[in-house]
Amino acid sequence: xxxxxxxxxxxxKMASTAFKEPDWEELRxxxxxxxxxxxxxxxxxxxTQEALLRVLRDRRPSPLPVRQRAFRKLKDVRxxxxxxxxxxxxxxxxxxxxxxxxxxxEDAALALVELEASLEQAMDPDVLAYARQKALGHTDADIAAxxxxxPQRVEAASRRLRRNRSSLDEQIFRSGS
Amino acid sequence: xxQDCIAARSTEEALSPERVLEAAITVWSLLEATEEVPxxxxxxxxxxxxxRRFQTMIAELGLSEQELAKRLQGDELSSHAGGGPLSLLxxxxxxx
Lengths: 177, 96
Prior knowledge:
The structure holds 2 protein chains of 2 kinds. By secondary structure, chain A is mainly α. Chain A has helices at about 10-20, 25-35, 40-55, 65-85, 85-90, 95-120, 125-135, 140-145, 150-165, 165-175. The mean pLDDT of chain A is about 80. Chain B has one domain (about 15-95). Mean pLDDT of chain B is about 75; it is low at about 1-10 and about 80-90. The interface between A and B is large, with 52 and 47 residues.
């Protein structure tokens, strides 16, 4: 066997990790979050996009999972970007406090949107519509009239909503963590 | 497909101010509508923690529960009157 030959076991390992399809959107979010810690949002997006494209273009077999390769590419692209003297000259100074504030706002927004999506999956549309009316202080009779529902339908939505309260609390508490 | 996914930059779409506000209202209405549901002491503690977590999230966005209530009330009125949505949320797409 030549010095550069790859053993069969290693080849199998490389094949199993190299072709495992990752969750690209999730990976993009994580890369963007990492990139955004040191640069402005538009730059972070460009860097993330470039890192992902390089992963996709790179057809060389690798024993590393896609995720790990993507973070390495991100590091390379960021380094190249910072080395570029034109960009360095154009770089804007942003305070750490401003970056943290923007990051916190974005994290909260994402957490809320994801939380709503998981609640919508867990609860049927009647429960959500009933909750909106109830939150406005309407009685069950008002809700039946406003939504043109039968009293039985209102009662069923109310019962399902009450039953879901504990799981609602748990989902909210865990959101964004 | 993967390229489409990247190009769509769906995180930005998901974070449009209207989308985030809508999510906040959905969660708030569920909390508010079940406020009176009887609970054990442990459940009450769970509720308080969930409420605090929710308040922290909306505070990061510069919102309050009162504003969400106003917005929900406004939606209710505009849906009857055929009016457009209000805008309370700062632009999340704005540069930091």
